[in-house]
Amino acid sequence: MKLRTALVMISLSAVVTAASIPFVDAQEKTVKVGGAAMYPSKNIVENAAKSKDHTTLIAAVKAAGLVDTLSGPGPFTVFAPTNEAFDKLPKGMVQTLVKPENRATLTKILTYHVVPGKLDASQLSDGQRLTTVEGESLTVKKMGGKVMIVDAKGNASTVTIADVSQSNGVIHVVNSVLMPAS
To answer: Pfam family of this protein, just one (predicted)?
Structure first.
């Protein structure tokens, strides 16, 4: 009788313990970015850090001191440039921007890729102007079923993967770095 009571108590203890452990739902809808699953239950930084296509972006976010901000509650819409997008910049520019003395410029460029609120691709319309966290505007252009984001200098970046849901917003992967006017 004592053995049976002990087994029941152990079983109940295991159920209570298992019920109190947070877990990622096996049914959670993920999108693959850079070879890694992006989980809607994780924040922007947690997910982007797993993408092999966003190592430069994550290094820049760390250098700019924006990890805590982009891990915060948001919500944010992030137009996330890939490593290839950063490679399109003039040679040596990324290495220069991540230096401590250039933190203000790097922060300005990165926050130009962030819009307050969560905007899915279906909420973006042709000609729409988006005010970034940096303070300047981006313009949405829709053409041939593609969504492009036009920066202050008139350069267009194409959204290559849209609507990557995050716990604190949404990421749209883009193929060029967006540049503010100043």
So the answer is: Fasciclin
